[in-house]
User: Fold this.
Amino acid sequence: MLGSEVEHVTVFEAKPEDSSVGGHAVAIMGGMKIFEFIGLLEELIAVGFPIDKMTAMNTYGLELFDLLMHDIFRATKNPNLLSSPETGERPLAYFCSRGCVQKVLARGLAKDTFNKFVPREIQERTTVDLKYNCPVVHVHEYNTPNGKKVAIQFENNRVEDDFDIVLGCDGAQSKVKDYILQEAYAEDPDSDPRKDQLAFCGIRTSFTSTGPDPEFKLRKPRGPRQWYGDGIYAMEATVGGVNGPEHYLGISYASKEDAKMGENTKWGQGSNAMREELRKLLVAKGFGAHKEFMNIFDNTERLVELGIRANPRPLKTWHSKSSRVVLVGDSAHKM
Ligand SMILES: Cc1cc2nc3c(=O)[nH]c(=O)nc-3n(C[C@H](O)[C@H](O)[C@H](O)COP(=O)(O)OP(=O)(O)OC[C@H]3O[C@@H](n4cnc5c(N)ncnc54)[C@H](O)[C@@H]3O)c2cc1C
Assistant:
């Protein structure tokens, strides 16, 4: 890949460009080092909300302990938890919406961010084309006189081919993974694919998020709070969103029933069933007494509900036999 020819990279994203990707948020700690590495730290810090202090509560309202995250990071001197001396050795703990992280990454491609660890002439030879609304349905390899190539099939039977390498960074429900595993099973007639399927592991998680609240009417500007209860754990936080700070609740709870796995973006306008179900659970678990928490919940605009799934055993492999199709990130992950 770092040869002398021009490199062309195409990124296919299933969602539309303006998608805020549901109510997800990410607490970015050591991972921010990567943003520094690719030259996007300043942009991420500008939109992120600092995790300077993390407070742990129980559902009776008792404050259990505070973690002074930024102070701890500063004191460790761990280079992965602080930005480099060039950027001021700042503690790297921020909360962002996933949509926000994706926007920063996409802008980084558009403005040709240069990574100081890769020779500039290689980066100048590399072009990147980001295509939204392209849900991949299937990938396959085929033979040519110059060796194997990879073809990608999209919805509506549209196909793009002639790729040298495909990286499947398409998350837990990866289509690229299907191709790699099918090939591996075909090689091993004794294997049973059913034994490797993701299985619900008894935990459901709902992510909820308000719209932008730049005046902090719904929640004071402060670090995240973690709530511990009987069979339930919640993270309450303000996160940097695409259009300003948003308030986020991540609610995980033990459940025998699998989630419906979907997103209800029309909470305010349409069905309230998911909201009501979750509200009842929160009240039963003691959150009804916590007005600010419930106020955030009641002003939530988006909800994503997931059943947490895990692979019963490690993936057989994370690359095709030719190594031209490779899994990256959550597609290769156990959960
Ligand atoms: C409940 C939960 C909480 C988490 N909390 C944190 C946290 O606080 N901090 C943290 O660092 N990590 C957290 N993680 C982990 C983190 O979110 C993931 O590890 C990370 O997002 C994985 O990145 P990825 O790019 O591999 O996959 P994803 O983030 O899932 O991205 C996959 C991308 O591929 C696209 N895509 C999917 N299918 C297709 C298709 N067929 N065709 C084209 N595009 C497709 C999707 O739209 C998406 O943009 C959490 C994970 C979970 C499940």
Notes: The longest strand covers residues 199-209. Confidence is low (pLDDT under 50) at residues 266-270. Residues 98-110 form the longest helix (13 residues). Residues 53 and 74 are 13 Å apart (CA to CA).
